[in-house]
Amino acid sequence: MKTLPNECLFETFIYLKNEDLFSCLLVNHKWCRIVVPILWSKLNTFKSRKLIKIYLLSLNAEETKQILPFKIMLPNGPNPLFEYTSFIKTIYFDTDSGIIDWLDSEGNYPPYLKEEKWPINAIHRIGSSLITMFL
Predict the structure, then answer these.
(1) Which one of 11, 43, 107, 124 has the lowest number of neighbouring Cβ atoms within 10 Å?
(2) Which of 46, 130, 111 is nearest to 72 (CA)?
(3) What is the pLDDT of residue 13?
(4) What are phi and psi of 24, to 5 degrees?
(5) Residues contacting 107, CB < 8 A, separation 6+
(6) Which parts of the sequence belong to the F-box domain (predicted)?
(7) Is 98 exposed, middle or buried (0-12, 13-18, 19+ CB in 10 A)?
(8) Which of 98, 93, 94, 91 is closest to 118 using CA atoms?
(9) What is the tens place of the pLDDT at every residue in 17-44?
(10) pLDDT tens for residues 46-70?
C-alpha cells in the first residue's frame, strides 16, 4: 500500500481548521507527527494555564534554576512527547495573566504568601525563564 509523502500531507494539513487538525492527530503516528507542528505554530499566547504548564515542563535545568529562589512548585509530570515550544512561530509576550492564572489554579502559594498577591518579581522571573526558552 502506497502512502502520500509527508510533504504532501503537510501542504494539505496547513489549510485545515484547528478543529479538523485535532481529528487528524488521532489517525496515526505519521499524521500526528505532521499535525503537531502545524497546531503549535499557530499558538501565540501565554494566557492559557494549560499551555503555561506545558511550557514549564519544557524548561531546562538552567531556566528552572532561575525560578527556584521563589519556592514555586513547578509542575510534575513526564516530559512532553514533542518539543512543542520549537514549533511556535510568533509569541505575544503578555505573560503575566497566564502565569498568575497557573499559579492560582495550582494552589502554588509558598507559606509566606498566603495572604498576599504574587510578588511581581516572581511572576517576571517565570516569564523571563519562558522567554529565554523560546529564544
Answers:
(1) 107
(2) 111
(3) 93
(4) -65, -30
(5) none
(6) 1-43
(7) buried
(8) 98
(9) 888 999 999 999 999 999 999 988 876 6
(10) 667 777 788 888 888 888 887 777 7
> What is the pTM assigned to this prediction?
0.68
Scanning the structure block, which residue is given the C-alpha cell 514549564?
56
Element (H, E) at 46: none
- Residues 6 or more apart whose Cβ sits within 8 Å of residue 35: 13, 21, 24, 25
What domains can you pick out in the chain, each with its CATH number? 1-42 (1.20.1280), 44-134 (no CATH)
pLDDT in tens, 68-104: 777 777 788 888 888 887 887 776 666 666 777 777 7
Residue 42's SS3 state is coil
Cell of 50: 494549560
DSSP 75-131: PPSPPPSS-GGGG--------HHHHHHHHHHTT---GGGTTSPPPHHHHHHHHHHHH
Angstrom distance (rounded) from CA 103 to CA 90: 24
